[in-house]
Design brief:
122 residues, mainly beta, single chain, 7-stranded mixed β-sheet, 4-stranded antiparallel β-sheet, globular
């Protein structure tokens, strides 16, 4: 059974940084590509960043240059480093195992974590 558990959310001022973590279990590493989604207040859930099995990454335009997705295979952990945070980055962030190949804007989530809240004050 695939399980994903996010952590690292919190409250931060505009311009600040946070690093989200997602510990994965229940499947063989490399079976899925991985992605981060977010659901902002009043909006639907959108893809933010994707990481493919070959290490390639993609980001939606709104976070390019500010967010970095990465993984630690030994620790079975996916990360999202978020720098220069903006008010509009506020939302619940979800880790997901997604179909490969993954593009941040169009990826399809198969399994989901419970989400972690990020609040950016302006």
């Amino acid at each position: 059974q695939v399980q994903l558990a996010e952590s690292g959310g919190g409250s931060v001022q505009s311009g600040g940084s946070l690093r989200l973590s997602c510990v994965a279990s229940g499947y063989t590493v490399g079976t899925y590509c991985m992605g981060w989604f977010r659901k902002s207040p009043g909006q639907g859930r959108e893809g933010v960043a994707a990481l493919n099995s070959d290490g390639s990454t993609s980001y939606v335009d709104s976070v390019k240059g500010r967010f970095t997705i990465s993984k630690d295979i030994a620790a079975r952990t996916l990360y999202l480093q978020m720098n220069s945070l903006k008010f509009e980055d506020t939302g619940v962030y979800y880790c997901s195992a997604v179909l490969c190949p993954a593009n941040a804007a169009t990826m399809l989530g198969l399994y989901w974590g419970q989400g972690t809240q990020v609040a950016v004050s302006s």
